[in-house]
Every structure is written in C-alpha cells, then in structure tokens.
Design brief:
It contains 2 helices and 6 strands, in the order E-E-E-H-E-E-E-H. The protein is α+β, with helices and mostly antiparallel strands and about 140 residues long. A hairpin with a 5-residue loop joins strand 5 and strand 6. Helix 1 (about 50-65) runs parallel beside helix 2 (about 110-135).
Length: about 140
C-alpha cells in the first residue's frame, strides 16, 4: 500500500485554510505534481466574519487560479454600506496581485454571494486581457 497522498489523488485536491489556498494538481505522470501556493486574505468592514463567505470566495478564486496560474495573491474585502436602494449595500472588493499592475474589482448587490460572483467575473475578464498581453510579449 502506498502512503504517498499525491499518488492517491484522482484529479486534484484543494485544501484551504482561513487565509491560504493550496492547490495540488496531478498531471498524467504521478511524479510531475504542480504545487501552487497563493495567499488569500479576507477583511471585514461592518460585517461579521463568515466561513461560508470565505469558502465561497475561495472556491471562485480557485477557478481563476486554475485558468491563470500567474496569480500571486488575492485580497478580499467585505463591507456593508447604507444605501437608498435595497438592491445594493453589500460590497465585495477583490484585489489580485499578478505580474504587472494589480487588478481590482468591486461589486455591490443585495447579497454578498451576488457581489462575489460579479467581482470574480470582472476579474476573469481583466485576467484574460492580461494573459493575452503576456502572450504577445
């Protein structure tokens, strides 16, 4: 029986703690394992810390890490503001450190889940442009 946890992996394993994302991804060969270590920091402003929000944001950012392996760090900010509209007020800001200028996205909706989704979609577009620029140089 093999005790090597990497050899026992089917496709990929994602482990995350409160502030760090660790991704193991297996290629066709068992010996060629890639290890990505990216910090994800969470900050809350007028919001109670939530493991559910952190897990959701980490899951969404993990999808970006799989597509764009040049990402170095992510900072996620959750805050609430009093607004005149019921459709806004729960804000999610995400800042990505990658080669070149930092990338930033902000969204305000009636739920943090919708704000996370929009922020990640905005970052996906920005990262796609950045990747195209990196290919052309």
């Amino acid at each position: 029986m093999n005790d090597d946890p990497v050899r026992n992996v089917d496709k990929s394993i994602i482990l995350y703690s409160r502030s760090k994302l660790i991704l193991f991804q297996r290629t066709r060969s068992y010996s060629n394992t890639y290890f990505y270590n990216m910090d994800i920091n969470f900050e809350y402003d007028n919001v109670n810390a939530s493991e559910r929000l952190e897990a959701l944001a980490t899951e969404k950012i993990n999808k970006l890490v799989n597509k764009y392996d040049f990402m170095i760090r992510a900072d996620v900010f959750f805050k609430t503001e009093n607004t005149s509209s019921d459709d806004t007020g729960m804000i999610c800001n995400i800042r990505i450190s990658a080669p070149g200028p930092r990338l930033f996205a902000e969204a305000s909706h009636s739920s943090f889940e919708a704000s996370i989704k929009e922020s990640v979609n905005d970052l996906d577009r920005q990262l796609k442009k950045r990747k195209e620029k990196m290919k052309s140089h």
